[in-house]
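Usage

Read records sequentially. Each one opens with the input sequence:
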Amino acid sequence: MFNNLTVKVGPQVYRYNVNAIDTIPEVLREYSAKKILIVHGTISWEKAKKKINFLNHNSFKFFYHQYTGVCSYDGATKIADKVELEGIDFIIGVGGGSLADLVGYSAHLANVSFGIIPTLASNCAPWTPLSVMYKENGESEGKTEHYLRQAAFLITDPELVIDAPVKYFVAGLADTIAKWYECESILDQAHLKDEPFLRLAGYTAKLSSEVIIEHSAQAIKDMKNKEVTHNFKVLSEIIFGVAGLVGGLGDKYARNAAAHAMHDALGKYIPASQKFLHGEKVAYGIFYQMALEQKWGEIDKLLPYYKELDLPLSLKQMEIYPEDEATLIKMVDFINSLEKVHLVPVPISKDILFKAIIDLENYIQN
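and closes with the structure output:
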C-alpha cells in the first residue's frame, strides 16, 4: 500500500479578475490581521500600488520592506526579525516568483499568515508551499518547504499581470509545461498510477501542457498588445495557479525532477546562467531530462515550439557551455545527490547523467 504522500492543495483563497485586489481586506479581517507587513520590489511595486486601494484603510496599520531581488535565507531572517520587532501579524508579498518564495519562507520562520499579490506570471511560486533559495550573489541553494502553512490568499488582477515584461510570461510557460515532462514517466509506474491524487496531478499537468502549447503564441501576442483576453487570462493563471496545484496534489512525484535539478546545477556551478530566467533554464532542463530518458522524439516535437518562443535548446546555444570538464563533473555530482532525479524510472548514475549532457549537445547541433 502506497502511503508516502503529503497533499497541500493551495492557498485558502484564490481570485484572479479585474478589481479582485479590492477584496483582500475581507480576507485580512477573516484572519484578524491588524499589523501588516508589505514586502515589495521596485518597478513592480510602483505599478502594483496603484491597484492596491486599501493601503490607507483605517482598520490596518501597514509596514513596508523592500527586498533585494533575491530569495535568500538572510533575507528571510531579516523579515522574520522585523515581524517580531513590530508585532506584525500578517505579511503580504507584492511581486514576482522570488519575492513570493521569500515571503512564504519568512512567514514560516515568523509563524504568521501571509498572502501573495503576483505582479507577473513567470512560475508557480505564489501557489506552492516551498521556496527556491539563493545566496545574495545569485548562486542556487536548493529549496525549503513550508510545513506550517500555505498562503492565506493568492489574489491579483490581470490588468496588473499583463503589464509585465513578456519574457517573464514566456519563461513561465516553459516552467509550466515542464510539470508534465518531468512527472509523466514517474506517475506511470505501476505502484503510483492508480493513486487518486497522483492521477489528478498527472491529468492536470498534461492538460496544462497541451493548452499552453496550443494557445501560447496568441497569448503572447495579446500580452504584447496589452489586451487582457480570455486566452491570456487562462494561460497566466495556469502558470501561477494550476501548475502549483499539480505539485500540491502530487507532492514530490509531480513537482519536479531532472529538469529542475539541472536548473539548480546551472545556478550553482555556472554563474553566467544567471542571465537566464528560472523558466528558461528549466526549458533547457526539459530537453536534458528527455535526453536522460532517451525520448528524442519528444525533443523533436518540442523543437518548433521552443524556436517559436526563443527558448534555450542547449548549453552551447545558450553560450554557457563550461570550458572545462571539471565543471560538468561537479554539476553531475550535484544532480546525482538530489532525490528528485532518482524518482525518474530510468537507470541513473554519474556516468549516465554526464552522458546525457553530451548527447543532448550533439543532438541539437546535428
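Summary fields computed downstream for this record:
- The chain has 14 helices and eight strands.
- Residues 92 and 122 are 19 Å apart (CA to CA).
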